[in-house]
What does this fold into?
Amino acid sequence: MKIIEILTLATVAIGLTSCGRQGGTSAADRTANALASYVAPGEKDEYYLFYSGGHSGQVFVAGIPSLRHISTIPVFAPYPGTGYGFDEESKKMLGDFTWGDVHHPALSQTDSKYDGRWLFVNDNANNRIARIDLRDFKTHQILGPIPNSIGNHGSSFVTENTEYILCATRFSVPLPKGRVADPKDYEKEFNGMVSGIKVDPKTGEMKVGWQILTPPFDWDLGSTGKGPSSGWAFWTSYNTEMAHDLMEVNSTQKDRDLCAIVDWRAAEKAVADGKAAMMDGVPIIDPAKVPGVLYFVSIGKSPHGFDTDPTGKWVVAGGKLQPATTVLNFEKVLAAVNNKTFEGDFRGIPILKYEAVVEGEVPVGLGPLHTQFDGKGFAYTSMFIDSCIVKWKLPPWTDAEKKDLNKAVLDKVQTHFSTGHLVVAGSDTKNPYGKWLVAMNKLSAGRHINVGPSEPESSQLIDITGNKMKMVAESYTEPEPHFAQILKVSDVQPNEIYPKDENKNPNAVWDKDATGVTRTGNQVVVKVTAIRSRFTPDRIDANVGDDLIVHVTNIEQTRDMIHGFGLIEQNINMVIDPGETKTFHIKLKKPGVFPFYCTNFCSALHQEMQGYLVVHGSNTTTATGGANAVSDSSSAAK
Ligand code: RUQ
Ligand code: CUA
It folds into this structure.
């Protein structure tokens, strides 16, 4: 049977595949599970779950253990709920794009532990990386499209001290971007890329540091090293065949795919030593000419995840189409690098001898994708085809286990259904919190009330404190969670307001006397204050053809005293937090009286928080009524 038929059948057969125990539904289990995930009214969750919103372009924040959705952080798409994409600053960040495809959130780290500063997310679609600041849970920077990089999927992987966000391309194209070649000449003309995005340690500001040119494989998921693998990074690939059409068949021909092992410190040094050539403003390293930057290792059957354990010694690949995970021993990888234990090369890049670096292949079942770790020597792998999570033991293995690695497989719990990513709390740090695992499932197959043809995605919460895993709760989300990060609530201290003395916006105004309307030629600048329950000024006069720039400062200093600024029929919707200043800019195209109002219910007199934009049809601000209508065509035409 063809691989793809197996995959399709497996999807159809969901629920029929056996994955060990069924979720407990006895009365005692129901009570225990409910208590484990219940957060009583007035109580709070212990952890944040930041999960990617996929092609919604957003990040969702839920609480653990309740799995309740708490807020949405818009990143790559406008979001009227927070006014994102309407004010000048966020519009500028979004640029010409109104969507992105968020896959893998990564919390910033110091010494391989979460430092509670930033959350980085990648955009698979438009080759970008964004930084969310955990002081206000808002997007503060969008970098990209990254030059020389197409399909920013193998991303965003943070290094031990957030020196870099490392990214690898899913797609390959002729480089530099804009060059056209026939896809039939794929092998010769197309290239992939690994990018090192440098992060400013103080501000979190990102910029493209350097890139490593690669063959046109489709790089897939990866991770960064720590401990013995400090300074290294890993990616699988699924198209070593270098196919460019009929991918599901042509890219699954080989039994093994070449995966990347990158010494990013060597890449950094190569650039410092002048060994890179510039392309589109970025130093590019050709790894065939700069030995020691890139190595390959061949891993079974279209591998997907490539995850480093908390000690940094074990790196685990999930082979989508082989029923096992492959465990590499990084100490052996280093020995193979140093002793040049290679089994050949591909385009001048050494291929590490598989037998010299592998510790074992663990027969976890069908469709292993991603692996997470609890820091106690156990690994948890998501199984797409088998629809379950498998718990297994990391090396060192006993002799009996080594002889039969089935013995290292300890437990399976069924998921519903076809789990993609999973996350164990803190798995990518050197000290995981453990305790909870969330399975992010691709299909929910009617386990919820019917909402029509499209079903929500499901997430399931699994208690991993005991020998046996225990599923305790499930919830549904908007499209579409890929990876997630779990952060202990006590490990971050978000601001409650924007303090007045920290507002450095030159257009902020804090009292009535500073507000007002200034006209310079065709430009009308308005400075507005918002406080319960009025805008000052509450009347703005301007003319058709004017550039209207409005700065609104919310002068409240009380948490959650938020005001909105909705301007009718002008597609303007700002939301201004306490102490914040936001700006919109529009060209006035039609005459009329346009009410503006507060969109965020702020007080008993919220409804009264309104005003008028009067757009006169001529250049005289005194024009009114019918005269306005009459003079409209002439002034609008200019
Ligand atoms: S990939 S289901 Cu976009 Cu994260 Cu593995
Ligand atoms: Cu301000 Cu409602």
Summary: Residues 625-637 form the longest helix (13 residues). The radius of gyration is 27 Å.
